[in-house]
Amino acid sequence: MAGATTAKSWKSPLVGAALIILLTILAYLPVMHGGFFWDDYVLVTDSPMVKAHNGLYRFWFTTKASDYYPLTSSLLWLEWRLWGNNASGYHVVNLLLHAVSAVLVWWVLRRLRIPGAWLVALIFAVHPVNVATAGWISEQKTTLSMVFYAVAILLYLEFDEERHWRWYGLSLSAFLLALLSKSAVVMLPVVLLGCVWWTRGRVQRRDIACSLPFFAFSLLAGVSTVWFQYGNAMHWRTVRTADFAGRLAAAGWLPWFYFFKAVLPFDLNVIYPKWEIDPCRLISWLPGVLLIGCFLVFLRERKSWGRAALFGFGYFTVTLFPVLGFFDQAFYRFSLAADHWQYYSIVGVIALGVAAGERICRKIAGGGGSSVKAMASVVVLTALTAATWTRASLYADAETLWRDTIAKNPNARAARYDL
Question: What is the pTM of this model?
Answer without folding.
Answer: 0.92
